[in-house]
Write a structure and sequence with these properties.
With about 270 residues, the protein is α+β, with helices and mostly antiparallel strands. The chain has a single domain (about 5-15, about 25-265), classed as Creatinase/methionine aminopeptidase superfamily (Creatine Amidinohydrolase, Alpha-Beta Complex). It is built from 5 helices and 15 strands. Helix 4 (about 135-155) packs antiparallel against helix 5.
Length: about 270
């Protein structure tokens, strides 16, 4: 791990091991579970519309209608001035892609990120989609990123250190020749959009806070085909792209720490 990366993680993510991480009550967990299921159902709903010729703005419009028709609000709309119901990030966009007139093309890969507010509770998730037929190198990146999430979740056990999540993710990504974005991370979620703890996707083993049953946070590794760094588009102030124009992929689940391990509250596909 290069020194500059580790200094960033140490100073910005694991500021201290005793961060105040809220333990959710059973009632709160049920509310967050319901919102998480709706967020995941939204991703399942939008899947058949992700095809060549559609614009990312058209997809966002469909997403917002689905969320509102199901009695919820899109958490991103109005958040710090953001104007849309989702983040849609094709190809070299790492995260926070702003829906616009961009037309998806055959062979593109695209991430769609949705956060719902249902009865005051938040659920946050994202996944990758293929637009038409993916290239082999793109499919390999997407498959590896999904496996990174699975391996990170496998480290989510009560009594374990949160840093083990990032350690497992980075180990797998690096083994396949990819880099791990460290400028963005996962986060606590449920009562608010963003809570403690920060969840880095690259870390040393046995570092960070100790996990306890009732904690809820997102794991959302962003894996790049090239360099790890990002750049923010000046035009919209949100869209984060890879600095070298190479592909990026991301998967995200809202995760509950249980007495025996973890539960992916947003896993309506049954993949995890």
């Amino acid at each position: 791990m290069i020194n500059a990366v580790w200094q960033f993680i140490q100073s910005h993510l694991f500021r201290k091991n005793n961060v105040s991480i809220k333990i959710k009550t059973p009632e709160q967990i049920e509310g967050i579970r319901a919102s998480s299921k709706l967020a995941a159902a939204t991703l399942k709903y939008i899947e058949p519309f992700v095809k060549p010729g559609v614009t990312t703005l058209e997809l966002d419009t469909l997403i917002e209608k689905f969320v509102r028709d199901n009695g919820a609000l899109p958490a991103t709309k109005g958040y710090k001035g953001y104007k849309h119901a989702s983040c849609i990030s094709p190809n070299d966009v790492v995260c926070h892609g702003v829906p616009n007139a961009t037309v998806l093309q055959d062979g593109d890969i695209v991430n769609i990120d949705v956060t719902t507010i249902l009865n005051g509770f938040y659920g946050d998730t994202c996944k990758m989609y293929y637009v038409g037929t993916p290239r082999d190198y793109a499919q390999k990146l997407v498959d590896t990123t999904k496996e990174c999430l699975r391996l990170g979740m496998a480290e989510c056990n009560p009594g374990a250190h949160l840093g083990n999540v990032g350690y497992a993710i980075a180990e797998h990504a690096h083994k396949h020749g990819y880099s791990v974005v460290y400028e963005f991370c996962g986060h606590g979620v449920g009562i608010k959009f963003h809570e403690e703890p920060d969840v880095p996707h690259i870390a040393d083993k046995n570092t960070g806070p100790v996990l306890k049953a009732g904690m809820i946070f997102t794991i959302e590794p962003m894996i790049n085909a090239g360099k790890a760094r990002c750049k923010i588009d000046r035009k919209d102030g949100w869209t984060a792209r890879t600095i070298d124009g190479r592909l990026s992929a991301q998967f995200e689940h809202t995760v509950l720490i249980t007495e025996t391990g973890c539960e992916a509250l947003t896993d309506v596909y049954g993949d995890f």
